[in-house]
C-alpha cells in the first residue's frame, strides 16, 4: 500500500484530516466520521484547537500526522497555507474539500491559482478544490463528506459533480454496480480526468472506467491517455452541458455547424471512449463492461419465455448500430428442435414458451450460446408459475460462466423476480427490466470490441510548400480584416489540393484576357473580405460567355457596392467552369476547438450546407483510412458511389483532399476556421472551387 503518483490517492495507510472537528453538520466532521467507518488504515485528525475529535487523538499540524495523504477541510483562506504545510511535510497526496475557489469569482480564482502554484512547487497530486472527496473499496476508505460508501466492485468512477457521486453511490446498491475507486474531481485545479483515466488504465483492479464530465480541459492529452487505457480497460462517459456556444461567432459553414459538442464527439471517438447519452445508459454500459467477457461477433441470440418481450428485444437489436440478430447454423436449429416442444420457436429469437421449466430454459440457453454467430445473449423472462426464479438466476449465471459469452438478463417483472435479480447481482450478470436497456448494455460491449481492435497509425505525411502558405496567411497582417477568401486559393496549390484554373483581377480588360485564356465560358466571383457568402448577394456568375466578361465584371462590382458601399473590394475572380452535373458538391472544412484543437469536417457541400447538415468530424490531421471512413459516413455517401446510374466520383481524390486539408490546419495553428466549399467531386477528379478562412494574427509565426 501507499503507491506513488495518482494511484496513491486510493491506497494510503495513514490519512490526515486537516480541519477535523466534532461540530455537527460540518464537512470536517462528516469526512472524519466516514473515514473512521470501515477504513483499514489509520485516520489522524488534525486541529490545533482540539485534543481529540470523535474520540480519536488529534495533532496540531499536518507535519505531526506522519500521513501519506491529507484531506483538507479548513476555511478557504487557510487552504493554500495548509497545502504548503503538506508539501513541506512531504505529504504529496492531497484532497481539498473546501469550496470557495474558482467557482466563486475573482478572489476565489486567485486563490485557486495560488493553490496550483503550491501544488506545482511541491509536486502534489491534488484533487479539488471543491471536491466531495475520494473513495476506494479495497481498503474501505471513504474520504468524502457524502453519506455512504459504495458497494465494492471493479468499476472506477470520476465525476465533475460531487452531488452526482452521492446520487450514484446511493443508487448503485440497488443497481448491483460495485466500485473500485471513485473521485469527485471538483474544480480540477491540478488533477483532472486525464490523470485518472491514465491511473486507472494501469490499475489491475479496475475493469471499467466511467466518468460524468462537464468539460475536458486538455482534449489532446485526454485522447492520448484514453487511447492507452482503452487498449485493455473500457472507458465510458456522459458529457453533460451540450452547448453550441461558439457557433454564433463563426463566420464559416464549418464553424457554424461545429459547436462544442461536435468536438467532444470527435474527441471521445478518437480516444476510444464510449459516450453515453444519459446517466442510466452510462451505468448500464458500465455493468456490461465490468463483466469482462467481450463478444466475438456482433450477432445477438435472444432466448425468451414470452413472445412480446422477445419482439421488443429483436427490435432493439435492429435499432442498435453495431448489433444484429445472430443467424443460427443448422446444428443449432436441429439441436433446439430436438430439445424443445413443438410449439417452441427454434429460430432466433428462441421462444421456450410460457410453461418452460428452468431445465428447458437452460437447455435452450446452452444450445443458443454455443452457436458460432452468437456473440452475446439476451435472456428474457416474464413471471410464470412454472419457474423458481432463484434457480433461474443461478442457471443464467452458470451459463454465462460456462460459455464465456456476454449475457444480459431481462427480468420483466417486479417482486416475483426479486430472487433472480439478487442472484444475478451477486454473480455479476447485468439484469434489466427493459429489453432495450439490456441490448444497449451489449452494444457497449460490441463498441468496445471495435475499440480494442483499433490501431492508431500516424497519418501519412503530406508534401507541401509550407513557406508559401505562411506568406499567404501573413497577408492578413496588412489588412484590416483577418478573413481570407478566393484570393488565397494558392494555399490549395501549396498543399496539393486541385483547383480550377483562375485568377483574381481588378479591371474589366484584364478579366477579359484571363477569360480568353480559360475557355468559352467562365465563372466570375466578387472578391471581398466583407462578403462572406458571395452567391447570397448575386456575387457569383456561372457560365459567363467570354464576350460578356467585361460587362459581368462591372455588374459584380456594382452589386458589391450596392450591398455595402464601404466594402473593401479586392477585385473579381475569373475561374474555369466545372461541370457540376457530373459531380457532387462536397465540403471540406476545419474549425479549431479550444479543447480539442483543429477538427476536420467532411460533408455534402454547396450553398445549403447548414440546411442539410450532412457532415462528419474528426480530430485533424487524419490519415487516408480515417478520411475514407468520413466519406462513407455521411448520408449522401451513395451519391459519391454513383447513385441512379451515374458514374462514381473519384473517391481517392476526395480522400486525398480531406487528408491534405486536415494536415494544412494541423500545420498552421493560425487557421481558426476554414471552408473549402464546394470541393466538387466528379468521376474525373476533385477540384476546390471556393475558399474561405479566418486567421488568428496572434498565432502567426514570424
Ligand atoms: P459562395 O460560397 O461564396 O457563394 P462559391 O464560389 O462557393 O461562392 O460559389 C457558389 C456556387 O456557385 C457553388 O456552390 C457552385 O454551385 C457554383 N460554382 C462556383 N464556382 C464554380 C465553378 N468554377 N464551376 C461551376 N460552378 C461553380
Ligand atoms: Mg462556397
UniProtKB/TrEMBL annotation:
What does the record give as the reaction this protein catalyses? acetate + ATP + CoA = acetyl-CoA + ADP + phosphate
The protein in question is named: acetate--CoA ligase (ADP-forming)
InterPro entries hit by this protein: Acyl-CoA_Synth/Transferase (IPR051538), ATP-grasp (IPR011761), ATP_grasp_subdomain_1 (IPR013815), CoA-bd (IPR003781), Ligase_CoA_dom (IPR043938), NAD(P)-bd_dom_sf (IPR036291), Succ_CoA_lig_flav_dom (IPR032875), Succinyl-CoA_synth-like (IPR016102)
Could you tell me which species this protein originates from? Halobaculum litoreum
Q: Return the broad EC class.
A: ligase
Identify the Pfam families for this entry. ATP-grasp_5 (PF13549), CoA_binding_2 (PF13380), Ligase_CoA_2 (PF19045), Succ_CoA_lig (PF13607)
The ATP-grasp domain, residue ranges: 489-525
* Tree of life domain: Archaea
Q: Which GO terms describe its molecular function?
A: acetate-CoA ligase (ADP-forming) activity; ATP binding
PANTHER family attached to this UniProt entry: 3-HYDROXYPROPIONATE--COA LIGASE [ADP-FORMING], ACETATE--COA LIGASE [ADP-FORMING]
Show the PROSITE patterns listed in the entry. Answer: ATP_GRASP
Is Protease given among the entry's keywords? no
Q: Does the keyword Nucleotide-binding apply?
A: yes
**EC number(s) from the headed UniProt entry:** 6.2.1.13
**What keywords would UniProt list here?**
ATP-binding, Ligase, Nucleotide-binding
Amino acid at each position: 500500500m501507499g503507491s506513488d503518483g495518482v494511484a496513491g490517492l486510493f491506497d494510503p495507510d495513514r490519512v490526515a484530516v486537516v480541519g477535523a472537528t466534532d461540530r455537527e453538520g460540518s464537512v470536517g466532521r462528516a469526512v472524519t466520521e466516514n473515514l473512521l467507518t470501515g477504513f483499514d488504515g489509520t485516520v489522524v485528525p488534525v486541529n490545533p484547537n482540539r485534543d481529540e475529535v470523535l474520540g480519536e487523538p488529534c495533532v496540531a499540524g499536518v507535519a505531526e500526522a506522519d500521513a501519506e495523504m491529507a484531506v483538507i477541510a479548513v476555511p478557504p483562506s487557510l487552504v493554500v497555507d495548509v497545502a504548503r504545510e503538506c508539501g513541506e511535510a512531504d505529504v504529496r497526496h492531497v484532497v481539498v474539500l473546501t469550496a470557495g475557489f474558482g467557482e466563486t469569482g475573482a478572489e476565489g480564482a486567485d486563490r485557486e491559482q495560488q493553490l496550483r502554484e503550491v501544488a506545482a512547487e511541491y509536486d502534489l497530486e491534488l484533487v479539488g478544490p471543491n471536491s466531495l472527496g475520494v473513495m476506494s473499496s479495497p481498503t474501505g476508505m471513504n474520504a468524502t463528506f457524502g453519506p455512504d460508501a459504495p458497494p465494492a466492485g471493479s468499476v472506477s468512477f470520476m465525476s465533475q459533480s460531487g452531488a452526482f457521486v452521492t446520487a450514484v453511490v446511493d443508487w448503485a446498491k440497488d443497481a448491483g454496480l460495485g466500485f473500485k475507486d471513485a473521485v469527485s474531481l471538483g474544480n480540477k485545479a491540478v488533477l483532472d480526468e486525464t490523470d485518472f483515466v491514465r491511473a486507472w488504465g494501469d490499475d489491475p483492479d479496475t475493469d471499467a472506467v466511467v466518468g460524468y464530465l462537464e468539460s475536458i480541459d486538455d482534449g489532446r492529452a485526454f485522447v492520448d491517455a484514453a487511447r492507452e487505457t482503452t487498449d485493455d480497460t473500457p472507458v465510458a462517459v456522459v458529457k453533460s452541458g451540450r452547448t453550441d456556444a461558439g457557433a454564433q461567432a463563426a463566420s464559416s459553414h464549418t464553424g457554424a455547424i461545429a459547436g462544442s459538442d461536435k468536438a467532444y464527439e470527435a474527441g471521445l471517438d478518437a480516444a476510444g471512449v464510449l459516450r453515453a447519452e444519459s446517466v442510466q445508459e452510462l451505468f448500464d454500459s458500465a455493468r456490461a463492461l465490468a463483466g469482462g467477457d467481450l463478444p466475438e461477433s456482433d450477432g445477438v441470440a435472444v432466448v425468451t419465455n414470452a413472445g412480446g418481450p422477445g419482439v421488443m428485444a429483436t427490435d432493439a437489436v435492429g435499432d442498435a448500430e453495431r448489433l444484429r440478430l445472430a443467424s443460427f447454423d443448422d446444428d443449432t436449429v436441429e439441436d433446439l428442435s430436438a430439445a424443445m416442444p413443438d410449439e417452441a420457436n427454434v429460430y432466433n429469437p428462441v421462444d421456450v414458451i410460457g410453461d418452460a421449466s428452468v431445465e428447458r430454459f437452460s437447455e435452450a440457453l446452452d444450445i443458443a450460446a454455443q452457436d458460432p454467430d452468437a456473440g452475446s445473449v439476451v435472456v428474457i423472462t416474464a413471471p410464470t408459475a412454472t419457474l423458481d426464479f432463484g434457480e433461474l438466476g443461478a442457471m443464467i449465471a452458470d451459463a454465462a460462466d460456462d460459455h464465456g459469452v456476454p449475457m444480459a438478463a431481462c427480468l420483466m417483472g417486479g417482486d416475483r423476480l426479486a430472487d433472480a435479480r439478487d442472484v444475478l447481482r451477486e454473480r455479476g450478470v447485468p439484469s434489466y427490466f427493459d429489453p432495450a436497456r439490456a441490448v444497449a448494455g451489449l452494444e457497449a460491449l460490441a463498441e468496445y470490441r471495435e475499440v480494442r481492435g483499433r490501431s492508431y497509425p500516424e497519418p501519412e505525411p503530406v508534401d507541401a510548400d509550407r513557406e508559401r502558405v505562411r506568406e499567404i496567411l501573413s497577408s492578413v497582417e496588412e489588412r484590416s480584416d483577418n478573413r481570407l477568401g478566393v484570393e488565397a486559393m494558392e494555399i490549395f496549390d501549396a498543399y496539393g489540393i486541385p483547383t480550377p484554373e483562375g485568377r483574381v483581377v481588378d479591371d474589366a480588360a484584364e478579366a477579359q484576357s484571363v477569360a480568353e485564356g480559360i475557355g468559352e465560358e467562365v465563372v466570375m466571383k466578387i472578391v471581398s473580405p466583407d462578403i462572406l457568402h458571395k452567391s447570397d448577394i448575386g456575387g457569383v456568375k456561372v457560365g459567363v460567355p467570354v464576350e460578356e466578361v467585361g460587362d459581368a465584371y462591372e455588374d459584380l462590382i456594382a452589386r458589391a457596392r450596392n450591398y455595402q458601399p464601404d466594402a473593401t473590394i479586392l477585385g473579381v475572380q475569373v475561374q474555369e467552369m466545372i461541370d457540376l452535373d457530373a459531380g457532387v458538391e462536397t465540403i471540406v472544412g476545419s474549425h479549431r476547438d479550444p479543447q480539442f484543437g483543429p477538427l476536420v469536417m467532411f460533408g455534402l457541400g454547396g450553398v445549403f450546407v447548414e440546411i442539410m447538415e450532412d457532415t462528419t468530424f474528426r480530430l485533424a490531421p487524419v490519415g487516408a483510412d480515417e478520411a475514407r471512413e468520413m466519406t462513407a459516413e455521411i448520408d449522401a455517401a451513395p451519391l459519391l458511389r454513383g447513385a441512379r446510374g451515374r458514374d462514381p466520383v473519384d473517391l481517392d481524390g476526395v480522400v486525398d483532399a480531406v487528408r491534405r486539408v486536415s494536415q494544412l490546419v494541423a500545420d498552421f495553428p493560425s487557421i481558426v476556421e476554414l471552408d473549402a466549399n464546394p470541393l466538387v467531386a466528379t468521376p474525373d477528379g476533385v477540384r476546390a472551387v471556393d475558399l474561405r478562412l479566418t486567421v488568428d494574427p496572434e498565432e502567426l509565426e514570424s
